[in-house]
Amino acid sequence: MFGAVPKRAWKRRYASDEQNRCLLAIRGLLVRVGARVVLVDCGVGQKPDKRLSYYQWKENLPIDEVFSAVGVTPDEVTDVILTHLHFDHCGGATYCNSQGEIVPQFPNAVHWTSRRHWEHAMNPSLLEADSFFPENVEVLLRQQLIRFVDGDTSIGDGITLYECDGHTVGQLAPLFVGEEGAVLFPGDVIPIAAHHSAVWISAYDIEPLKSLQSKQRLLDVARETNATLVYCHDAYKPESKL
Asked: Cα–chain-centroid distance for residue 174?
């Protein structure tokens, strides 16, 4: 999670076990904006896959159960913003039905992603190939549930999608601005609060210098809008302000 940063530095900001493993969250964001119900990322999902056993999940709740706790059903979701298509951010966009078919979890939603990122995810480099499970999302394209954005894009109702490079190509970081304030979901550009430091770059990032630039840019956006940052992977600190 901290790349070239020595453990004697990062251990003061984030806990690990005797094998240097960090406990991480997989966190999404559910926002009501007028008549829209907007979901940012949707976790790893529940589809059986032996490739996921390596990660030793502590708890992976079904989406229906999570949504029921806040009085929402998947059918009510109007927009799904997929920050990027790594399996732990988009796997829950689909599920296996009783016939064993992979089908959309949010059949009435527009699924937003970056065009550059989609093209990259469908033809990844060897360095990143194990992070993409195309079967998670291909059905969304076939059913015309995907909408592509090119560069920074406003999608209405105070929602702006910032396109960022570094962790991967063309990740999206959504900013919500409303009467009650602003919320920024920086995704894996700033996955945990300890990554505020511009030079603390994860070893998972494929272009570290672009990660640094993307991080600095999003932190500037957060300061300018006085936004609360919501961290997708921080197990101890779900959100903070700068």
From this structure: 10
How many Cβ atoms sit within 10 Å of the Cβ of residue 187?
30
| Chain CA centroid to CA 136, Å | 14
18 within domain boundaries: yes
Q: Is the pTM of this model over 0.85?
A: yes
The CATH number covering residue 73 comes to 3.60.15.10
Question: Percent of the chain having pLDDT more than 70?
Answer: 100
Domain extent at residue 19: 7-236
Residue type present at position 88:
D
Please tell me the total count of domains within the chain.
1
- The answer to whether residue 215 sits within a structural domain is yes
Share of the chain above pLDDT 90, in %: 85
Q: Any idea which residue has 């962790």 for tokens? A: 167
Three-state SS annotation for 131-157: HECHHHCHHHHHCCCEEEECCCEECCC
